[in-house]
Design brief:
The protein has helices spanning 12-33, 44-56, 59-71, 78-81, 85-104, 112-121, 127-147, 152-166, 168-172, 204-217, 226-248, 264-278, 287-321, 332-367. It is an all-alpha fold and 368 residues long.
Length: 368
């Protein structure tokens, strides 16, 4: 069943983080595919949904912080660039599966040119791959910046600088000072006035990357009691979710910068959750549970990418069966685990193909 056996020397907490992140991705997509964003945010059910969505929005930021945690010592070399091979191949294989779904299930016509365009256009859920390729190419140079700073103070200033450029605008540039009574009905206008520069907000992956590097180097400074850490995360999710509910009240959900990937809501909740998951005690965890976390972690990229297939197949049926968006929330506990399991199986098959292809490539390279 398992592609690789769990190694006892491995830090299982990192696999737990990756597992939580990929499950959160599918959970966020639940809201995307059940017409949550086209429904007036009003009432207890939509309030609960907004808070739950806020909690799961840590998905992409967790991956980025984990990247900084793991790769902050990488140096520029020929060997380094081979490290993206698996990501690219898994992406291509996953996209071919998606195209097969288009052709076989949706009866759409595809030419070879269409296939190539789909792969190079990073469609479906593949925007993260497009972003990650750029981040991967920058990492050796980002590490030169980070590792050549003289100490903790300078590294902290680097992170604070990036937070100022990418996150502070989501806190300060989201108010309308010209519309009467706007404070009591913020959804009435999105004509916000800038208080700080916001040109660099799309650099948020670098912010999360350096946060991950900082946590890895100075993790002894984050010795928050686990219960306190978890409570802080829960309280933050409730407060941030309540704020998003207030900003969208009685209108369709407003995906403002405050709740976007680099917004202050996600920065706070992501850091708190990452530190909590990093410090969970796993010494007494049964081997089979560790193996499961490790396997999901290894398959996470494929799970993320091919989940599009099962989302497209299952959610239209749910939406047709349950007309009201608010009533679909209870089906989260059915459809998200189902899509996760189906995506895991398909990702497992894709990784088997990748393993075979990789062995073939190594053999051919040696012969050459």
């Amino acid at each position: 069943m398992f592609l690789t056996r769990y190694n006892a020397k491995r830090n299982i907490n990192l696999d737990i983080i990756r597992t939580v992140a990929v499950f959160s991705v599918l959970s966020v997509h639940f809201f995307l595919n059940t017409e949550f964003y086209n429904t007036p945010i009003l009432g207890k059910k939509l309030y609960a949904a907004t808070i739950i969505r806020t909690g799961f929005m840590v998905c992409v930021p967790l991956f980025l912080v984990l990247t900084g945690y793991l790769m902050n010592k990488k140096k520029l070399s020929k060997a380094y660039y081979s490290g993206i091979k698996k990501t690219i191949i898994i992406y291509i294989l996953s996209t071919l599966c998606i195209i097969a779904f288009h052709a076989i299930i949706l009866n759409e016509q595809f030419t070879l040119f269409d296939v190539l365009i789909n792969i190079t256009s990073f469609k479906q859920y593949s925007w993260y791959i497009e972003m990650y390729i750029g981040l991967f190419l920058l990492i050796p140079f980002l590490n030169l910046i980070y590792n050549n700073l003289s100490g903790k103070k300078e590294k902290l200033i680097l992170i604070l600088t990036l937070l100022t450029l990418t996150t502070l605008p989501s806190l300060l540039n989201t108010f309308d000072f010209t519309t009467s009574h706007w404070l009591f009905n913020p959804a009435s206008s999105v004509n916000y006035q800038k208080l700080v520069p916001a040109w660099w907000v799309n650099l948020y992956p670098l912010t999360y990357y350096f946060i991950g590097a900082f946590i890895q180097e100075y993790q002894d400074d984050f010795r928050i009691p686990l219960k306190c850490n978890f409570m802080l995360f829960c309280v933050s999710v409730i407060l941030m979710g309540s704020y998003s509910y207030y900003r969208s009240y009685n209108s369709n959900f407003i995906w403002g910068s405050w709740c976007s990937w680099g917004g202050f809501e996600n920065v706070i909740t992501t850091v708190l959750l990452f530190i909590f998951l990093l410090r969970i005690k796993t010494e007494k965890m049964p081997y089979i549970i560790k193996q499961c976390f490790f396997t999901i972690s290894e398959l996470s990229l494929g799970i993320y990418l091919v989940s599009w297939i099962f989302d497209q197949y299952n959610y239209p049926k749910l939406n047709q069966l349950i007309p009201e968006t608010a009533d679909r929330l209870l089906y989260y506990f059915l459809i998200v685990p189902l899509n996760f399991l189906l995506s895991l199986v398909l990702s497992w098959l894709i990784n088997l193909i990748y393993t075979a292809l990789n062995k073939l490539l190594i053999t051919l390279t040696r012969k050459t």
